[in-house]
Amino acid sequence: MTTLFSSIRASGFHRGPDRMIGGVCGGIARHTNTSAGFVRLLTILLALTVVSWFVYLIVWVLTPDELGSIPLERWLARG
């Protein structure tokens, strides 16, 4: 499991400090060099489907923040 989290960190993608909920849109915007507002608008349009909420949740749980902390890794370490 440690290898999985290490490879996620090595990808260079992380949730950004420009966050409203989980920081996923801010991270995508920074990674693609686009506006966070534009990515949020696309996310809202995609939010009309249940699948997009599931995908957003998975990305949030597996994506490190700017300090490298991954929510799923923290949760697994607790119990």
Account of the protein in words:
The radius of gyration is 13 Å and the shape is globular. Helix content is 63%, strand content 0%. The chain is built from five helices and no strands. The longest helix is centred in the last third of the chain and has 13 residues, at 50-62. Helix 2 crosses helix 3.
Describe the structure in brief.
With 79 residues, the protein is mostly helical. It has 5 helices and no strands.
Distance between the termini: 14 Å
**Biggest sheet, open or closed, and with what strands and sense?**
none
H/E element sequence: HHHHH
In percent terms, what proportion of residues is strand?
under 5%
Overall mean pLDDT = 82
Our count of helices gives: 5
What is the helix content? 55-70%
What Rg, in angstroms, do the CA atoms define? 13 Å
What structural category arises from helix and sheet content?
A: mainly alpha
Uncertain segments are: none
Judging from the principal axes of the Cα atoms, what is the shape? globular
Compute the number of strand runs. 0
